Fold each of these.
Amino acid sequence: MAGSRVAHATLKGPSVVKEIVIGIVLGCAAGSVWKMHHWNEQRKVRTFYDLLDKGEITVVAAEE
């Protein structure tokens, strides 16, 4: 019975380079989504103030 060995699968640890690359990719994706959201909100605000300057809209409630 001496010397009987069972082949086990060896698990490798996490790859540091792979984790860094995945982190950078996810960070860039989240940053892009945030930037697009910010640009959209900025466009809405700019449109609002342009209409306000032109006199097409007002922020004063109409009196009855």
Note: Residues 36 and 42 are 10 Å apart (CA to CA).
Amino acid sequence: MGKVTVMHHLLIISVFLSSVLLYGEAGITSSFIRSEWPAIDIPLDHHVFKVPEGYNAPQQVRITQGDYDGKAVIISWVTPDEPGSSKVYYGAVQGKYELVAEGTYSNYTFYKYKSGFTHHCLVSGLEYDKKYYYKIESGNSSREFWFVTPPEVHPDASYKFGIIGDMGQTFNSLSTLEHYMQSGAQAVLFLGDLSYADRYQYNDVGVRWDSWGRFVERSTAYQPWLWSAGNHEVDYMPYMGEVTPFKNFLQRYTTPYLASKSSSPLWYAIRRASAHIIVLSSYSPFVKYTPQWHWLDEELKRVDREKTPWLIVLMHAPIYNSNEAHFMEGESMRAAFEAWFVEHKVDVIFAGHVHAYERSYRVSNVRYNISSGDRFPVPDKSAPVYITVGDGGNQEGLAARFREPQPDYSAFREASYGHSTLDIKNRTHAIYHWNRNDDGKKVATDEFVLHNQYWGKNIRRRKLKKHHIRSVVVDRIAS
């Protein structure tokens, strides 16, 4: 290709990019089709589910934040045969555990499955930005791990979050987990739908909850995963006599809900580094006058953007979704909470549920009141960016059917497995990536700079720059 032709193509690219970024052309529906492993769960005898050696050895180890501001963790684990000890030995030097905390344990039945003993231990009074080693033991069996506490709550504290949803325990799930662990992120914002054990029946439900706990331990034992619940955590199975919602999830996974004055582990808030993170429950009552509605009203008033400029909300069912799968299932929560999200200038809302990836522009639909007003979402500089990351790899497979034409609010969408990261740099800027799991290679497919709604309002553009467009256009010209 001659120099004149190359320059001509580059000029076309430059003009195209300028028009898109300036005038906000229609979003992109990716045509990428990846080869994927079958959407079936990994066999139970696979090494990723290996049971630790030793009688009654602790397994399914996981940590989550244990307080409001990041100076505590809750360490959880399971002893399969008998209770054993609920103590955690910890310290700043590996092998020298000068401190000890003691937790509690419980077990339960689900149909005829009898669980192991789940331990929860609060380790508090930690120093910020410090590496701690810890040991848990049961009789002659013991295991050792480590974690790093976040920096002190501060508007310019940098921190990198991973975002994963709808994970399951297939080989696609394993690819997502392995790619995430190479990302350098320091904590996971999990968007619900953990094990997909509810796809099984009778005793196999509990067995697959156990296998998933061992599956993710390679990450959850070393850094906090902040949990939210999805529809696959409801586990409503009347044919088995099991009608208590979230029974398996709540017995096994805990959250620091009391620290944020919540009445339920299913909705809560934390502050971590420069972020204020609010977790909502899509499958608990949230309409006006319910406990979750009252709590969110008060929690939003507690947000101090001078200390935590980044306001992030997690939920399972997306409010804005242009996929045929689960279309409009988030509409009731949008009607209940969207006006608050706009009023408080939430930076970004992450959701799962739809097994694909999609990102929106900043839009809102708060002007319509059933009888009058705009009936469609419109650009709104005070609105959040809505991002669906429900592509963790579960056995239900990908949601490949997007609605056409692509709505104006939709910036980018693709049906592939992957995970995201949000790398907060300071009070004004964060770098967001969506990484596609492309046949064993980590690929940054969607990437942009997120300007903070509070501190960056004077320099923020109405619509986010879609940096991935350049590579897309170059690929099209090259092909």
Note: The mean pLDDT is 90.
Amino acid sequence: MDLPAGEHYATKEIQELCDQVKSKVEEITSRNLVEFKAFIYREFKSSHFATYQVKVCVGETEYFHVLFHRTVSEKEEVKTTVEKVEQHHTKDDIIVPVNSQ
């Protein structure tokens, strides 16, 4: 499957980041998610800041688009913040880049 420009298949590292935000996504959506598998992602990085948009499989045919940020302080403390969760997407839905919303 050819991916749209800027999208990449999820890596182990992206899955690990998604594992870290899963509980916040469950809180936002009021759902207990048994499956939470990163599929496709977009990433925007600067020196102390990264924004991730990840398409996450949460069921057989249901996907979430999760937008979160990771910041690194001058003391090297990492903070991850979930900004937005879009529910009810499909495997074929394109992740709309955050800079075009």
Note: The chain has one helix and five strands.
Amino acid sequence: MTAEPPPQLASDGVMADVLAQGRAACYKARDAFFACLEKEADKKPTEIATVGLLYPAQCKAARAEFAAKCRPTWVKHFDRQYCARKRVQRLLDDGNDPHRGPISLPQPYTFKP
């Protein structure tokens, strides 16, 4: 297990990554990584991130920057959010599989003898 660097403290004792500047840098790195994932969606994913997220090797640098600029718990949270959004999108968009897509609710049954 690799040792994480000690958190950087701002002058007033607050961790630097939770300040607005740190959060903005984290969000920018996150958006760059997920934009790379969307752009390289046709490539074969060969790298594994947290929560089972797979990504192509072309996004390795963006992933490293994302992991460096954000807290590990935030990275895991954003990965989970992305996976959940993609799962829902896949379920709603795929029209070829009858088990996917919008849920068709059963119609009320009226019994007529």
Note: The chain is about 45% helix and 5% strand.
